[in-house]
Amino acid sequence: MKNWLKPSLLVFFSFLMLLVLAACGGGEGMQKVKVGEVTRSIFYAPLYVAIENGYFEEEGLEIDLSTIPGGDKTMTALLSDGIDVALVGSETSIYVAAQGANDPIKNFAQLTQTDGTFLVSREPIENFTWDMLKDSTFLGQRKGGMPQMVGEFVLKQHGIDPHGDLELIQNIDFANISTAFASGTGDFVQLFEPTASIFEEEGVGYIVASFGTESGHVPYTVFMAKDSFMNASPETVEAFTRAIKKAQDFVYSSSAEEVANAISPYFEDTEVDLIATVVDRYRAQESFAKDPILDEEEWNNLQNIMDEAGELPERIPYEELVDTTFAEKVTD
């Protein structure tokens, strides 16, 4: 009995070891990519679709996604190799380049192509016109960020001096803007979704205009990486971009409900019906980019908006900070 047990146990444990090795081998060849998003938003729906629908996995990529609030913090994480890829406003790459970075940040895949904020009024307005903002208190976004710059750009396009024709509040942190408005601060506020729609449902505020439709196409949120990372891992960057293109196709070819169901795990406190409403709204104004290519006209529009806001440190040529090589490869 004793002599029979030892070889049997040996065979048994050898079999177990083979199972363990086989299980571990299932992950072999998967390339881990650390991605940092500047905030969690339905505005970034294609990213979550790419994860949940397995498009990254199909490309051999394992995505480690983290939310890093604030463009400055996201860029710090990218520059210090805390993340490989950043999803953030493309203006941040200009700020970094203007400081003389030795390892430039390159924009390689565009996710959103319009501003994602909406103008919300405290009272319902049946026939809104932009001049209604004159002499009002406007709760705007953080100074230097894309929402604030686009907000001021749109106001000026409608003949409103943001710093002369109304009381502009810009000293409230991004995370607290909606709370401040709900508490009674401001006649108008500039908000992202789903907060704008939630406020409308609750009677806290009412959407009266879209900054996205007013400002035109800009590379509002873009995937970017250090030049050194892209040079060292071109296959990874191409695979990443291809997964994003698959997700962009899904977002525009599927129903809003299908998209909402796909991304609902990222918004557990938001009803799926509301997510679908927001997806539909962003899709109707083509806020989600239809392909990952960032074109030169969009880049120039971005710098014009920054310049108008007094936030452009210097004009950076398109070819210096934009690399469309991978986006063009995956877009037919």
From TrEMBL:
<protein>
    <recommendedName>
        <fullName>SsuA/THI5-like domain-containing protein</fullName>
    </recommendedName>
</protein>
<comment type="similarity">
    <text>Belongs to the bacterial solute-binding protein SsuA/TauA family.</text>
</comment>
<keyword id="KW-0732">Signal</keyword>
<dbReference type="GO" id="GO:0042597">
    <property type="term" value="C:periplasmic space"/>
</dbReference>
<feature type="signal peptide">
    <location>
        <begin position="1"/>
        <end position="22"/>
    </location>
</feature>
<dbReference type="Pfam" id="PF13379">
    <property type="entry name" value="NMT1_2"/>
</dbReference>
